[in-house]
Amino acid sequence: MSTKEGIVVRAGNGVYSVQSNGQVMHCTLRGNLKKELQYSTSGSNPRRVTRAKRQWVHDTISIGDHVKYVETKHGAGVIEEILPRKTAFTRSGFRGKEQTIVSNLDQLMIVFSVAEPRLDPWKLDRFLIVAEASEIEPIIIANKGDLATDQELAESFGPFRELGYRVLLTSVKDSRGLEELRTTLNGKVSAFVGPSGVGKSSLLNALQPGLNLKTADIGYVTFKGRHTTTSSQLIPLRFGGWVADTPGLRDLDLAAEHLDELEHNFPEFKEHLGNCRFQDCHHDKEPGCAIKAAVESGQVQARRYESFLSLAGKE
């Protein structure tokens, strides 16, 4: 049996859909691969498998993984090898264990709506921290742009533009920003993430007619979206590139690696780090803290500093 290489485009219930040369093969996992893969994170080198132990979580493989597999005589496939990951978008999973949602991403498309439901900047901070920690380029999509005025948009998303993050304004109803979004996605592996009800599936349907991803109206009492995507899938785009549609993440629990050296995942802190009076400064109550001084001088946004303290468990 010859070995082939492909990319995992769908994963669930122990069955993995692997695409290779335009063909999709439904595969299972070789028994000796059913283990938890641990990755090195030192320096700026790509992650690589360093050791493995018996698995007790269920994310050995995620969509976006590049694998080697063989076809069996029954027309199915068996995955023999998982190739090293370039990047991984993760969150805290069962019992705090890290759960990988999508692998080998070029960019993280973080979708929030400008209204119904309105932007929660504290929750957006969490997605940005995950992107920074994973060394994945974050792009903020301000969706449902037809529901807000220019002033409301500036008040909600302006502070993130000031931080240097790219913000795209989109609307399915009037098609604004869709062409710019297509250009941004072309030739890249991207993941659409964000809370439920912000219009991720509607955006993808508008970008590529014919996908027919399930959508649902938000609840007009709570303005909380209903979960409509129940499994993750990697979708090839006709205009070029791949995009992951993931289940709505109403609450994103940060994995331990995201909280390690948390201050380094706030890019506006970086120029001030190392300037504190004490080398082991926690940037909270210590005197001579350069981060606190930057907040007082307006160089660092007070709300972002409060977000840092909250995530660090200092409030």
Count of discrete alpha- or pi-helical segments spanning 4 or more residues: 7
CATH superfamily of the largest domain: P-loop containing nucleotide triphosphate hydrolases
Overall geometry comes to globular
CATH domain topology of the largest domain: Rossmann fold
Question: Which residues sit in consecutive blocks of at least 5 with pLDDT less than 50?
Answer: 36-58, 216-229
The figure for the number of domains is: 3
Number of E strands: 15
Helix content: 10-25%
- CATH architectural category of the largest domain: 3-Layer(aba) Sandwich
**Mean pLDDT score, rounded?**
82
Query: Which percent band covers the strand fraction?
Result: 25-35%
Distance between the termini: 59 Å
List the secondary-structure elements in sequence, H or E.
Answer: EEEEEEEEEEHEHEHEHEEHHH
Strand line-up of the largest beta sheet: 12-11-10-13-15-14
